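Bench notes, afternoon.
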Amino acid sequence: MNRTQRILLLVAVALLVVTWLFPPLLCYMNFNRNEVWTEYRFLFHPSTFGLVHRTIDWGRLALSDAIIVAVGALVIYLGK
């Protein structure tokens, strides 16, 4: 593995870490579950509103991680 491939591997791993620290969140009000929106926030960010419930959108997180891994593997493979 040459230096360029190592740098690309490090960038891909760093992007994976970023997606786990800033995951896609599903937000909805505790009293009205019909009002749902999405946002990206720091995982350990304290909730500013007591009525807003946030959960991690695992489907989007897995999809974004799969895209990062596929593109990173393709770039590293083609960089040989």
